[in-house]
Write a structure and sequence with these properties.
- By secondary structure, this protein is mostly helical.
- The protein has one domain (2-268).
- The protein is built from 9 helices and 2 strands; from the N terminus they run ααααααββααα.
- A two-stranded antiparallel ribbon has the order 1-2.
- Strand 1 (163-165) and strand 2 (169-173) form a beta hairpin.
- Helix 2 (25-47) runs antiparallel to helix 3 (53-71) and helix 6 (134-159) packs across helix 9.
- The chain is globular, with a radius of gyration of 19 Å.
- The N and C termini lie far apart (47 Å).
- The model has no long low-confidence stretch (mean pLDDT 87).
Length: 269
């Protein structure tokens, strides 16, 4: 498992560097869009396999239109498109899901949760990329989240003895969580020294810690979803890592933290 994890990482890292740092922006946006679609389909397969294809396709279409609008900088139109998704999904569900059982409300909620949980956070990547130094902030976010994952994994393996949340994820420990936090803070400090992000080092340290905590909570929330449905992994697309959702679960919670920080930093200037 470790060998597969490392091989996948060693293949992915150079691709990410080329994609974020040197490729045309539309190519980066297209990959984030594909990741969003993959995560969305895994979420539906995991939580609501009986969901009508029409509903899942409509949310996939929403994802595509949202990314297109953000890609061409139609930010206000994209914002107005979000409630439109909720309206259309509920209308389609009403017309094409003929059963009126009480369980259908839960199924509808899962259909709506998918884009809110996956599409909206990932779409913020496109907005983060528009901030001054956007590429560096994307690198920063990925580095902090990945270092948090690796730190939690190996600190937990070496020193873990106190369970973090046994009911949700029996393998995670407090020692691993603290190790992930320290790893993220270290990477944030390194970034502050090496790259031109224009922020005081103390802000970078707190931001790294905040993203790490949010990412670990995102990991636990995805573990909760999998445990609720009796699954170990969300998929098998990434050797050693599981599914797409298994790899981006921390990002989904870390992205809004970074976006909120950058928006506040711009506002107070």
């Amino acid at each position: 498992m470790d060998l597969k994890r490392w091989i996948t990482g060693l293949v992915a890292v150079p691709i990410l560097i080329l994609l974020i740092g040197f490729a045309p922006r539309w190519m980066f946006y297209a990959v984030v869009w594909l990741v969003s679609l993959g995560g969305l389909m895994e979420f539906y397969r995991l939580t609501s396999p009986n969901l009508s294809r029409l509903i899942s396709w409509s949310t996939a279409a929403f994802t595509s239109v949202l990314f297109f609008l953000l890609g061409i900088r139609e930010f206000y139109l994209a914002l107005g498109f979000v409630p439109f998704l909720l309206m259309v999904t509920m209308i389609l569900f009403m017309f094409f899901h003929r059963s009126t059982a009480a369980e259908n409300t839960g199924l509808l909620a899962k259909a709506l949760l998918g884009p809110v949980y996956i599409t909206l956070p990932l779409s913020l990547f496109l907005l983060i990329d528009r901030f001054p130094g956007g590429k560096w902030w994307v690198f920063f976010l990925l580095s902090v989240i990945f270092s948090s994952d690796m730190g939690a994994f190996y600190f937990g393996r070496l020193f873990g003895s106190h369970k973090l949340f046994r009911r949700i994820s029996p393998g995670k420990t407090w020692e691993g969580a603290v190790g992930g936090l320290f790893s993220s803070v270290f990477v944030a400090a390194l970034f502050a020294k090496l790259f031109p992000l224009g922020q005081h080092i103390s802000c970078m340290l707190f931001l790294g810690a905040g993203i790490s905590i949010a990412g670990q909570l995102g990991d636990l929330c995805e573990s909760m979803i999998k445990r609720n449905h009796g699954e170990k992994d969300s998929g098998r697309i990434l050797p050693g890592h599981g599914g797409m959702l298994d790899r981006i679960d921390g990002l989904l919670f870390g992205i809004p933290v970074l976006y909120g920080y950058l928006s506040f930093a711009v506002f107070v200037r």
